[in-house]
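Students often ask why inverse folding is considered easier than folding. One informal answer: many sequences map to the same fold, so there is more than one right answer. In these notes we will look at a single instance of the problem. The structure comes first.
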């Protein structure tokens, strides 16, 4: 059975793929590389009406419990561009972030 796509967040990854609730995205790790490796994956969840990134696993495995850390998905984008853009489709994350599964 094919998984039904989740609610679209209106945001896109580095490669222009749409990000939906339930999507797993991979992003570069900038600190604690000795613990996580070079990347970590996050599940896009919904907190109220707000899409968030919730820790899923790292390059070196699941080094923290799933959901242990979280942040706003919007924090991955330039805030002024995010707030004043007339086409969210044209926005891309500030740093590398790609959809792994939907």
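Output (designed amino acids):
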């Amino acid at each position: 059975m094919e998984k039904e796509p989740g609610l679209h967040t209106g945001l896109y990854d580095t490669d222009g793929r749409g990000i939906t609730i339930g999507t797993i995205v991979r992003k570069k790790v900038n600190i604690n590389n000795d613990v996580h490796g070079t990347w970590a994956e996050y599940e896009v969840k919904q907190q109220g009406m707000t899409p968030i990134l919730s820790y899923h696993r790292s390059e070196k495995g699941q080094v923290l419990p799933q959901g242990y850390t979280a942040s706003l998905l919007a924090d991955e984008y330039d805030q002024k561009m995010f707030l004043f853009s007339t086409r969210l489709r044209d926005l891309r994350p500030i740093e590398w972030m790609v959809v792994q599964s939907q």
